[in-house]
Specification:
This protein has a two-stranded antiparallel ribbon with strand order 1-2. Helix 2 packs antiparallel against helix 3. With 111 residues, the chain is an alpha+beta fold.
Length: 111
């Protein structure tokens, strides 16, 4: 379902429903993000069990790599969604602070 909103400057924008965002936006890929996070949590729980059971360090590292990969791919989905929707609307509304916030978030994400 798509919903139309009007910005302060009488600029309309539409979006579909998913995860609400702090500036009144919704993320389209909510289910994809939640599924990827669930997978990452599952991998991390497995890593914890492996450490508790004293399993081979090499195997633990492989599972940690799977967790990191799952989180990175989830971050990419969120970033793409944010760029395609939130940032487009923020820029059209003249919200330059949103650009700086995104730059800061990207800097932290790629560290």
């Amino acid at each position: 379902m798509s919903e139309e909103h009007i910005h302060d400057h009488d600029h309309a924008y539409c979006h579909s429903h998913g995860i609400p965002h702090s500036h009144g936006h919704v993320h389209e890929n909510q289910k994809v993000v939640l599924n990827r996070l669930a997978r990452a949590i599952g991998h991390l729980e497995k890593v914890k069990r492996m450490v508790e059971q004293g399993e081979d360090c090499s195997e633990v590292l492989v599972q940690l790599a799977a967790v990191r990969s799952a989180l990175n791919s989830t971050g990419k989905v969120i970033l793409q969604d944010h760029m395609r929707h939130c940032m487009v609307d923020a820029i059209s509304a003249g919200d330059h602070a949103a650009v700086e916030e995104l730059c800061d978030a990207i800097q932290k994400f790629v560290k």
